[in-house]
UniProtKB/TrEMBL annotation:
This is Carboxymethylenebutenolidase homolog. Residues 30-245 form the Dienelactone hydrolase domain. It comes from the Eukaryota. It is found in: Cytoplasm, Cytosol. GO terms for cellular component: cytosol. The keyword Flavoprotein does not apply. GO terms for molecular function: hydrolase activity.
Amino acid sequence: MANESRPCPCGIGDRFDYEGCGQEVQVEHIKAYVCKPPASTDKAVIVIHDIFGWQLPNTRYMADMLAANGYIAICPDFFVGQEAWKLSNDWASFDDWLKTRNAGKIDKEVDVILKYLSEQCGAKKIGVIGFCWGGAAVQHLMLKNPHLKTGVSLYGVIKFFDDRSSFLHPTFFIFAEKDEFIPLEQVTLLEQKLKQNCKVDYEVKIYPGQTHGFVHRKREDINPQDKPFIEEGRKDMINWLNKYL
């Protein structure tokens, strides 16, 4: 629960000079960061981290922002104790590192978290958001998991699941126009496949001039000209969740 003497500095802003409003918990074999809203709710959102892992302040900030908007937010360690990627790592070793961290093999962990949210937190309507690696994981869950109501994939790497687009639940895709990891041709192809195969609500939105990671960028790295798009992306994400949860 948020510390009452140190109210959570989240709305749709970008405060990064705080330690997080939530707490770390152990859920069976998974460590997780949980933040709850001041009022009780039966709505929850699973936050799936990027390659930098569940302890990244940027990602915890997004969980806190969801809690400030009325959701129970949980960011589990989907690497299950394996080391997160570090900026000091050699990119030449990235493919090998990724082999043991498959965004399409998180179903066991998601089931454990769903059980926790339902039994320990009283959640009845549960959605999921994810960034980069986590955005790809959201695509996987929207194809597979019947218990989630909706998903938001933020710059999720399309190539992991580019052959499938028959989603079970409403899905919102946030992409950056100048993403060095996700070429716009891939986004166009995704849109074509969704148009052909997708029977549920979906939206694909490209934010002009933005680069990979823009929605959960930390404050000191935000350029003034990007700020309106970052705020828009955060609001769009919240609005999508509000619509479907």
